[in-house]
Amino acid sequence: MDKKLEQIILGSTGAETAELGETIASLWSGYGEIVRVNLKGGVTESVVLKHVRFPTERNHPRGWHSDRSHERKVKSYEVEMAWYHDWSVRCDGVCRVPKCYASETIEEDHLMILEDLNAAGFPLRKSNLSKSEVLLCLKWLANFHATFMDESPAGLWEIGTYWHLATRQDELAAMESAMLRQAAPAMDKMLNNCQFQTLIHGDAKVANFCFSEDEGHVDSQRVAAVDFQYVGGGCGMKDVAYFLGSCLDETLQERWEAECLDVYFDALEKSLKMHNKVVDMAILEVEWRMMFPIAQADFYRFLAGWMPTHWKINDYSKRVTLNVLSELRI
After folding, report:
1. Domain residues for 219?
2. Chain-wide mean pLDDT for the chain?
3. What is the reported pLDDT for 146?
4. Residues 115 and 197 in one domain
5. I need a surface site. Which of 15, 87, 169, 201 has the fewest CB within 10 A?
6. In what order do the strands lie in the sheet with 46-53?
7. Is pLDDT above 80 for 28?
């Protein structure tokens, strides 16, 4: 292990020794890796190192190699470091995130020393969820959105999500549908100009949720979230629409959608009260329910340019998008 890195880990955790362990994941497009670090003599037996190194040669899995793509990724890691340094401490047990022990930049490398959520009681990763697990994640999102309702995203993305239009002009130009291309600015403006804005996770897919062991009854299970590269300002429906599309097939998404939204808004109202946020919940709910299909269509817009064969483009998402385009009279 690099001596400077070792000093940062030992100094931030109080450990006596640190040893690199398993590689948990490689970062998108070869921009670094996530590694478990085993410790002795400190407050914890392990931490997770997110080590960002910008590659000299770019190798995007989908073939998007532009300078714009690289600049977006560079900013995303700067945003994530700002998130952990300045914002994450405000997340409590109902919107659990990893504790950040240290975040530093050494020359070209970005280093984040984070709590090991496996050791903290969140060892499970899932690709398919039961309804109770879907609702658990929606409650996490509701509590996250309530915590940061009506706050300015200082140091973060002004507009959260990795697919928002201003950063995805290459994909917009590549899409085949002229009608969808024409409608994209209107949908983007509607979402960005909502009366009610909060911080959104920005990449709230099922793979970024970590689950506790299921102890046999629904209320015992807990969830935490990771990967805050695209956290920023926005309408909470962006997270909700994206999350549901990430974990449910089109049949279940359509079947469970009404119940999912009801549970989300109920949890949001309770959490706003708990955080003493003065918000007219009735007006917020009307606005955000209207924004939900807009958010679905907005993500469809991104996929249509980025990867039109993606499995998330299905009959249901097409119908939702066509309905939105019809209402916009595009």
Report:
1. 123-330
2. 92
3. 98
4. no
5. 169
6. 17-26, 32-40, 46-53, 109-115, 100-106
7. no
Are 72 and 149 part of one and the same domain?
Answer: no
Domain CATH code at residue 285: 3.90.1200.10
Residues 91 and 182 in one domain: no
Its pTM stands at 0.93
User: Is the same domain home to 114 and 224?
Assistant: no
Q: What pLDDT shows up at residue 228?
A: 97
Largest separation between any pair of C-alpha atoms in the chain: 65
Final residue before a domain boundary, out of 55, 89, 120: 120
Q: Which of 34, 2, 33, 29 is nearest to 18 (CA)?
A: 2
d(CA 134, CA 216) in angstroms, rounded, equals 17
Same domain, 157 and 303: yes
What is the total count of domains within the chain?
Answer: 2
Tell which phi-psi region holds residue 276, choosing left (phi > 0), alpha (psi between -120 and 50) or beta: left
Residues 6 or more apart whose Cβ sits within 8 Å of residue 108: 53, 54
| Mean pLDDT lowest among 71-80, 178-187, 284-293, 314-323 | 71-80
Whether the pLDDT of residue 289 is over 70: the answer is: yes
Q: What is the pLDDT of residues 203-220, one digit of tens each?
A: 999 999 999 987 656 578
Same domain (yes/no): 101, 177: no
> Which of 120, 152, 174 is where one domain is finished?
120
Same domain, 137 and 49: no
Other Cβ atoms less than 10 A from the Cβ of 86: the count is 14
Do 37 and 159 fall into the same domain? no
Identify the band that residue 56 occupies on the pLDDT scale cut at 50, 70 and 90: low
Q: Kindly report the CATH number assigned to the domain that includes residue 77.
A: 3.30.200.20
